[in-house]
Amino acid sequence: MAQVLLFGGRSFAATEIAGVDEAGRGCLAGPVVAGACILPAEYDLPGLDDSKKLTAAKREALYPRIREQAVAWGLGVAWPWEIDEINILQATFRAMSRAVWALKAEPRFLRIDGDKLIPGHALQRDIPQECVVQGDGKVPAISAASVLAKTFRDRLMVRLARRYPGYGLAKHMGYGTEAHVAAIRELGPCRLHRLTFRKVRPEEKPQVQGSLF
Question: Per the database entry, which stretches of residues form a coiled coil (predicted)?
Fold first, then answer.
């Protein structure tokens, strides 16, 4: 495990680096949730990996251990109405920024999962960053952030499913399964749905041009 990261001619200790990742970006319903995590130089998190590669039981087992052992951790949420207002990419940046703001120890460096950095207007802090493609499977701090975000979001969706019954939210967590899309067609969207997403908003019927004769 690397103890020091060199970037841009500067060095950063492991305890100064926060990993950042999101969950729920591709859903039709529910918020996008981001996690941020600073891990200590030494930790005991067996099986830590990209949350998508872990079972729900494994994520649930890791969730409290990450929070207990982390130097700092934070979660950020951007709700469906925010997604509809500013689009999913900008809402993801907003959730990531909120997760970073929630850290009780300010990081000196951020490692973001994916191929995009958090823009300055969202982060509102001058913190060096790098993006890491498939970082949730390569960088332990990002893996930890991934598990935090996914587990928190799944728990939240189970609770929200009781408030908005009929859509099966506790089963598919808001993703666009056939059953979910069918429920939207039958019941119409609820407050948790992202109204700007194609499978949620009503499809426009093509206008049939009448004959000129």
Answer: none
Identity of the amino acid at 119: P
Residues belonging to the binding site are 21-22, 113
Question: 174 with 192: CB under 8 angstroms?
Answer: yes
Residues 6+ apart with CB under 8 A from 100: 18, 20, 36, 74, 76, 107, 110, 118, 123, 125, 127
pLDDT digits (tens, 9 = 90+) for 37-58: 999 999 999 999 999 999 999 9
- Domains annotated for the chain, with CATH where assigned, are 4-187 (3.30.420.10)
Residue 53 identity (one-letter amino acid): K
pLDDT of residue 201: 87
Token pair, residue 182, equals 């069918």
> Which segments are annotated as binding site for a divalent metal cation?
21-22, 113
Q: pTM for this one?
A: 0.92
CB atoms under 10 Å from CB of 75, counted, come to 21
